[in-house]
Amino acid sequence: MSVRAELIAVGTEMLEIGRRDTNSEWLTERLSRLGIAVRARSVVEDDVATIAQAVRAALQRSGLVLVTGGLGPTEDDRTRGALADALGRPLERDPEKLAALERFFSRRGLPLRKKQADRPRGSAWIPNPVGTAPGIAWEEGEVRLFALPGVPAEMRAMFEGGVEPRLSHIAGPRAASTLKIVGQGEGQVDALLADLYDAPGLTATILSGDAGLELHLRADGADARAALERLTDEARRRLGGDVFGRDDDTLAGVVGRLLEDRGQTLATAESCTAGLIAAAVTEVPGSSAWFRGGLVVYGNELKTELAGVDAAILASEGAVSAPVAEQLAEGARTRCGADFGLGVTGIAGPGGGTAGKPVGLVHLALADAAGVVGWRLSKMGERAQVRRRTVTEALDRLRRHLLAARA
Amino acid sequence: MSVRAELIAVGTEMLEIGRRDTNSEWLTERLSRLGIAVRARSVVEDDVATIAQAVRAALQRSGLVLVTGGLGPTEDDRTRGALADALGRPLERDPEKLAALERFFSRRGLPLRKKQADRPRGSAWIPNPVGTAPGIAWEEGEVRLFALPGVPAEMRAMFEGGVEPRLSHIAGPRAASTLKIVGQGEGQVDALLADLYDAPGLTATILSGDAGLELHLRADGADARAALERLTDEARRRLGGDVFGRDDDTLAGVVGRLLEDRGQTLATAESCTAGLIAAAVTEVPGSSAWFRGGLVVYGNELKTELAGVDAAILASEGAVSAPVAEQLAEGARTRCGADFGLGVTGIAGPGGGTAGKPVGLVHLALADAAGVVGWRLSKMGERAQVRRRTVTEALDRLRRHLLAARA
Q1: Residues B372/B366, Cβ–Cβ less than 8 Å
Q2: For a Cys staple, A154 with which of A131, B108, B136, B191, CB 3.0–4.6 Å?
Q3: Domain residues for B198?
Q4: How confident is the model at residue A303 (pLDDT cuts 50, 70, 90)?
Q5: Could you tell me if A262 and A375 lie in one domain?
C-alpha cells in the first residue's frame, strides 16, 4: 500500500467567492505522477487554531501532509505557529536564517520581518530559489510534513527542488503519463479510446483547455510501467498527428524544436491576438534561436505601414479577411527576415461582429518562401478564449506544416 | 458576530487530477449573498472515519456546516453513517421514508436500496425535488448541519428549497471591497495599514501576484457598509497613488481610460516581454480606441530594422541597456504613430545573464513628444515572473506619468 497524501491550503482570501486553490490542483497532478494519491484536501482561514487542527487531523490519518500558504512576512501569515502547535514543538528563531534574511533585506533597503526565520524545533528549511519565504520540512518515522509558500511560482519551484526528491522512494508501483492533443474534442477522444482504458488498474482522465486536450493515463499494479507504455503507444497510434507531445511538452516548445532542428526561423504579424503568439513562443527559454520577432498591427494603418498590407485590399475586403491574413503572414516573413511568417486577423469580441463577420471569425495564414496558405476559423467563447484558442490553432497549423514538410 | 460556515465535499473522484469542487464554489457564492463567510472548505475521500472526523472538527469550530455528496444508494456512499458517528447518534431507518422510496422504485421497476431511508436519530429530511436521495438536516441550539447530494442540480435545488430558508434569520450584515495596488510589497502595505483593520468586525487580506497586490477589506456588523467605506477611504489616503483601482479594475483598463479621456494613443516595442504588454492592453475590450500596435523585436537586427535603434549604440552598449530602451520607446512612438511609446529590453532568463547584466535586469523607457524617460529595474523570479512583473511595471509607469501630467 503506497503512501497517501493530504493537502492543506492556508489563506482566508482563497475562501472568498471566485477563488480557486490552484496550488492543490497542481500538487495533485505532481503527486499523481509519483504514484501518490490525495485522500483529502482542504482550504482553511488564516487562524492558528484552525490550521493546527487541520494539520493534526491530517497527520493522524496520512503519511504525507503538504501545507501551502501562510509563510509570508505579515501578521496574517500564521502557518509557522500553527505547525509548531500541531507538532507540539516550540517555535525557534534560526540565527543563521535570520542573518541571511537581514543581509537580503538590508541590501534592498526593505524592512525585515524576523518571523520568517522561525520554525518548529526539529524541523528543516526548504530553500526558496525565487523568493524570500523559506519552506519548512518535518520528517519523523513514516510521517512527512512539508510547508511551502502560497505564491504559485515559489511553491512549484520549492516542491520540485525540496520536496519531490524526498518522496521518490515512497512512491507506489504506479505509472502515469500525459498525452497532449490538439484538433479533437473531448468526446471524440473518449469514443476513440474508451475500450483501451476500460480495464482493471488503468485510469484515464481527459482535461479540456484553450491550449488543447490533455489525456492523463495511469496504470497501477506490479507491471504498471509496461502496462502504461502499451496503453500510451496504442492511444498515440489511434490519435495519430493530433498528439503533439507528452507530459510537460507545450505546443510552442514543440514548434520551436522542429524549427531549431531545421535551422529555420519564425516571425508573426498579429491583429486580434495582438502579441499573444509572440508571447507564447518566447515563453520557451532559448527561443531567440528560432523566433525573430513580430508586428502587432492593431490599428488598420499599421497593417499597411508595418506589415505592407495593400491599402486597397484592406479597404475592399476589410481587415478581417483571407487576403489580409495572407499579406500579414508574408509581411511578417519578409519584414522580420524569417523563414516562416504567421498572420492573424479576427474579431475577438465582445463588440465588432456583423452578420457576415461574426465574433469569433478569425483568418489565419502561414507564409514561407514557397507561398502562403490560409485558414478561415470560427472560434467559440468570450474574448480571452477566442484569442487563446487562436494562438493554439496558429501554432498547431505551423506544427503540422513542419511535420508534413519533414515527412 | 455573524455565523461562519464550513463546507465539506465527499467524493474520492473529486480528488483526482483536474477535478474541481464546483459545489463548494457555488455554495460559497450563495452563502456570501446571505452575509455568511466560509472559514474552511475541504474535499474528503469516501471513507467513514475521514468524513466523520472532518464533520466533527467543523462542528466544533463553526455554527454552520454543509456537507455535499455521499448520499446516493451505492456502497461507496458513506455520508449517512459518518454523520451519525460525528453526531454521536445511532443511524435509524425511517419507516415513512422507506415506504415512500419503495413506492417510487417499484413504480419504476428499479431495485430499492434501503439505506437511503437511514438518518441519524434526531435529524430531519430535506426534500429532493429532482432526484431520489433525500438530504439530512440537524439543528441543535446554535449549530446547524446540512447534508445534500453531490449531483449539482439536486444540491442546488435542495439548498434553495430546504437550506436557504433556514439561514435567512442568521445571515449577518456584511460588506466587502478590494483595493488594487502596485508599487509596494505585501509587508509594506501591511505595516502602513495594520492599525486600521485591527478592530472588531474588520478583516483584511493581502493577496500578492505579478499584476500587483490586492487588498481585500471586509466589514461585519450592523453598520458594515459605513465601516467599510471609512476603512477603504483611509487606506486609499495612506497608500496614495499606489492604489490604481478597486474591485474589478485592471491596470491595463485604468491606463486605457486615462488615455481615452485625453484622446491619446499608445504603442510598444518589446524585446524580453515579446508581445506581453501588447497582449495585456488588448485584453481590454475597445482598446483599439487608444492602442495602435507594437513591435516585437526579439532578434537584435530587428531592433534596428523595425524600431530604428542605432546599430552602433546597440553594439557598444549591448541590447539590454538604457539607450536601447529609450530608442525602442521612441521607435514605437514614431513608427506606430502614437502619442506614447513604451520600450522594454531585459534578460528574462534562465540563461543570458552576466555579472554586469544579471538575469532580471530590465531597462524600460517611455517616450512622448516632449522626450524620453527611462528606468532600470531589477526583477526577481523565474522567466515567466520576470516577464509578467515587467508588464505590470511598464503599465504602472505609464499610469503615473498620465496622472502626473493631468495634475
Answers
A1: yes
A2: A131
A3: 174-246
A4: very high
A5: yes
Q: B274 contacts in A (CB within 8 Å)?
A: 275, 278-279, 281-282, 291, 293-294
Count the domains in chain B: 3
**Mean per-residue pLDDT over chain A, rounded:** 92
* Rounded Cα distance, A329 and A268, in Å: 7
On whether both B232 and B152 belong to a single domain, the answer is no
User: pLDDT tens across B243-296, in order?
Assistant: 999 988 999 999 999 999 999 999 999 999 999 999 999 999 999 999 999 999
Question: Distances from the Cα of B293 to the Cαs of A202, B282, B296, in angstroms?
Answer: 50, 9, 10
Nearest to A279 among B208, B279, B382 (CB): B279
Q: What pLDDT sits at residue A171?
A: 67
Whole-angstrom Cα distance, residue A88 to residue B28?
33
Same domain, yes or no: B118 and B220: no
Contact predicate A331/A308, CB 8 Å: yes
CA dihedral for A82, A84, A90, A96, sign (positive or negative): negative
Contact A28 B16 (CB under 8 A): yes
Residue B2 Cα, gap to closest chain A Cα (Å): 16
CATH number of the domain residue A136 falls in: 3.40.980.10
Question: For A207-246, how does the pLDDT look when each residue is reduced to its tens digit (9 = 90+)?
Answer: 778 889 999 898 888 898 999 999 999 999 999 999 999 9
Mean pLDDT confidence for B138-148: 93
Closest approach of B274 to chain A, Cα-based (Å): 5
Nearest residue in chain A measured CA to CA from B51: A40
Its ipTM equals 0.78
Q: What are A342's strand-pairing partners?
A: A268, A366
Residue B218 and residue B115 share a domain: no
- Residues B88 and B199 occupy one common structural domain: no
Residue in B51, B28, B14, B87 with CA at minimum distance from that of residue A45: B28
Rounded to an integer, the average pLDDT of A327-352 is: 96
Q: Which residues of A touch B273 (CB under 8 A)?
A: 279
Give A-chain residues touching B286 at CB under 8 angstroms: 351
Q: Are residues B226 and B313 in the same domain?
A: no
Output the domain CATH number for residue A178. 3.30.70.2860
**Within this chain, do residues A42 and A120 fall inside the same structural domain, yes or no?**
yes
Which residues from B are below 8 Å from A43, CB to CB? 40-42
Contact A57 B61 (CB under 8 A): no
Q: CB within 8 A of A321, min separation 6: which ones?
A: A313, A345, A363
- Confidence (pTM): 0.78
